Amino acid sequence: MIPVAFYHQEPEESAEVLKDIQGLNLEISITCFSDLSSLMDSPIGFQIIFIYISSKDKDTSSLDPIEDLRCRMPSVSLVFLSDTRYFALDAFRFHAAHYLISPFSQTDLMSALTRCFLEQNIRSERMLKIKPVKNPVPAFVPLSDISYIEII
Fold it and tell me: What is the CATH number of domain 2-126?
């Protein structure tokens, strides 16, 4: 099962999209969140995160938590869902795998998930997580790139 997170500030509005994703009958387990800090504190190692951003959130500071999420989870595949094109360029800044504008069809959702599955296969190489002393953001290095490690 591939762990998938679904973030929407107003969960009752996301019921239809969740039903469509679950209707795809894929080997995924979906955990829903209504705030990003709970998602980031979750012990589950999500591979794909769906993030719904509403046109009501046109203040760019609403994207600050997503920037933090990307720093904490650099290998996760992000899929932005929105009712507007307003955030599409910002999605590139966060290296989103896909950006969907509502209404979403099952074909759209499947296309986004397929792209995420391909992205995750590329990222599935084992990584070494290095936590710098003076920087809260860890660095990830593919094990195949390491030929020698020394600690002084």
Answer: 3.40.50.2300
